[in-house]
Design a protein that fits this description.
- About 50% of the residues lie in helices and about 15% in strands.
- It is an alpha+beta fold and about 375 residues long.
- β4 and β5 form a beta hairpin.
- The N and C termini lie close together (about 10 Å).
- About 5% of the residues have low confidence.
Length: about 375
């Protein structure tokens, strides 16, 4: 499973023994894999400042998670033809996300632990805000380019009634620069080809004999040319419609056709040029944002542990990786049982609820006797 529970308990002898019992029970019952989660000794500051940081870190945690999910989705959208390789590009410090979380080490160079906690949190917030700003601008430009290209490509893939004809027709198909004559394009159902050949010359006066030619087909019908005098265009359209032949409104404009083809070539070139730099930026900054997110989790554990367990700072953080989804309820019961002494009233109510109320699902927001945070990497799948 790509789900983790990050918990902490006081570091006194009684609770270290409780952690050992937890490790033994979860190991024997094959409930989870547990590892210590190292958190530096930060400058605590005042309790009032910790209360404020608790709220701020909660918001920053939510923002960081949302940001990395958006960045992962952007990688999926950019790698439209290689979606099977998406996870190769969603790494943190060059390793897969699970490995990074399970071997987490605080980055002292990037986030100095000797600084006040407020400064560390401010650094993380500014970093993530800048990444989001850059993400919006970079992906917006690429999305506009991609949408324009898709619109042009759609014009080339519709049926003969709607698709562009610039890649079908040629100059030789038309009578051009004539004061009196004009070439029209007519869509004829496949079942009516014979009827068209027999009747098109008589649909109106002044139709040029033997002037029709089939130049394209789709599953429904064919695109025929026909040449006639300009003065009978409207009459010909009416008669053609009565026979279920549809005149396609199209007039050959060599400059417009050339412009459309050049636009397609330009967009394809621009997309190819932007693809590599954008994907590289997403890879680098996804890693940065993910690393920042796990550091925020570590900060939250520290702040909440101090607020919950008091001073002096003395707690042990543990990372649990449940082995399977079906075991999470049993794992929660084990934790609540082992640590119920931290808050007898809350622990009892949780245990009672989990046993006596069928179908009760404990959410991340429920109160537990110990400090608890959730990391769900499956949200990035």
């Amino acid at each position: 499973m790509s789900e983790f529970w990050l918990i902490s308990a006081p570091g006194d002898k009684e609770n270290l023994q409780a952690l050992e019992r937890m490790n033994n029970v979860t190991s024997k019952s094959n409930l989870s894999h547990n590892t210590k989660f190292a958190i530096p000794d930060f400058k605590v500051g005042t309790l009032d400042s910790l209360v404020g940081l608790s709220d701020e870190l909660g918001k920053l945690d939510t923002f960081a998670e949302s940001l990395i999910k958006r960045m992962a989705q952007s990688v999926v959208e950019v790698m439209e033809d290689s979606k099977g390789k998406v996870h190769e590009n969603l790494l943190a410090n060059g390793v897969d996300l699970t490995s990074f979380v399970t071997h987490f080490e605080w980055d002292m160079a990037k986030y100095p632990a000797k600084q006040p906690l407020v400064s560390v949190v401010d650094t993380l917030a500014k970093q993530l805000a800048q990444i989001e700003t850059d993400l919006k601008s970079r992906t917006a430009a690429y999305s506009v380019l991609k949408a324009n290209l898709e619109n042009l490509e759609k014009k080339s893939t519709g049926n003969l009634f709607t698709r562009t004809l610039s890649d079908i027709v040629s100059k030789e198909d038309f009578v051009l620069d004539s004061e009196y004559l004009i070439t029209l394009l007519v869509i004829v159902p496949k079942s009516s080809y014979v009827q068209w050949q027999k009747t098109y010359e008589s649909l109106s006066d002044m139709v040029v004999p033997r002037s029709t030619k089939l130049i394209a087909e789709d599953n429904e019908g064919g695109l025929f040319t026909v040449t006639l005098f300009r003065k009978v265009i409207e009459d010909f359209k009416v008669k053609a419609k009565e026979n279920k032949f549809i005149v396609r409104e199209f007039y050959y404009d060599e400059k417009e056709i050339k412009r459309e083809r050049e636009e397609m070539t330009r967009l394809l070139s621009d997309k190819k040029q932007q693809y590599g730099p954008l994907l590289r930026w997403l890879k680098v900054n996804f890693s940065e944002a993910f690393i920042a997110w796990i550091h925020i989790k570590a900060l939250r554990v520290f702040v909440e542990s101090v607020l919950r367990y008091g001073l002096p700072v003395n707690f042990q953080a543990v990372l649990l990786q449940p082995h399977k989804k079906s075991a999470t309820k049993r794992l929660r019961e084990v934790l609540n049982s082992v640590f119920r002494h931290l808050d007898e009233v809350a622990a009892a109510s949780i245990l009672d609820a989990s046993v006596e109320i069928p179908g009760l699902q404990l959410s991340n927001q429920d109160y537990f006797p110990y400090v608890y945070f959730h990391i769900d990497l499956s949200l990035l799948d």
